[in-house]
Amino acid sequence: MYFEKAGKENTERTLQIAKEEALKRGISHIVVASTFGNTGLAAALMLKGTGIKLVVVTHNTGIREPDLQTFDPEIKKKIESMDGKVHTGTMVLRGLGTALKERGSQSYEQTVADTLRIFGQGTKVVVEIVAMSADAGLIPFSDVIAVAGTGRGADTAAVIKASSSNKFFDIKLREYIVKPIDF
Predict the structure, then answer these.
(1) Which GO MF terms does the UniProt record name (predicted)?
(2) CB pairs under 8 A, 24+ apart, for 70-74?
């Protein structure tokens, strides 16, 4: 399915489609990107009682300013009370590469991130959060569904064969489930 435009107004539909596809395909894990917690909480509520394991991936602490974690701690507690996992870790395609870019240099990480963005910001993020979740041992190295968006909310979902960041090119985006046309 394609959305005409990217954006958070697609969040509920994206999550619903991801849930339906996971159930239909027998996929047991959904990974969701969430900066402040709202998308993660919406996913936890929607997946409650389905048996699908949820991993919510946040931005790393300090991404906006030193010592600041943007993910709401109360929302984290709510997600965890519904058996969801919340993972905060180094962003595979941002950490060191962004530091190098700020010093006037280019990095391999930035090149990979920019290449994935050709397909949309959501595509870059779904691949990245799968690597982060695999690195943390939160998902199997098999097919999962990953959900992310352009800015806030969710507008992209894909079936992805997971692998760790040190085997980044073993990650396979098998199929888009939903994606915006205009991003």
Answers:
(1) kinase activity
(2) 70/35, 70/36, 71/34, 71/35, 71/36, 71/37, 71/40, 72/36, 72/37
Q: Which amino acid is at 50?
A: T
Say what the pTM is: 0.91
Domain total in the chain: 1
Give which of 77, 90, 84 is closest to 138, Cα–Cα: 84
Domain extent at residue 71: 2-180
pLDDT of 97 over the 90 cut: no
pLDDT surpassing 80 at residue 95 = no
Question: Which token pair is 98?
Answer: 């962004």
What CATH number corresponds to the domain at position 168?
Answer: 3.40.1380.20
Q: Say yes or no to pLDDT of 90 above 90.
A: no
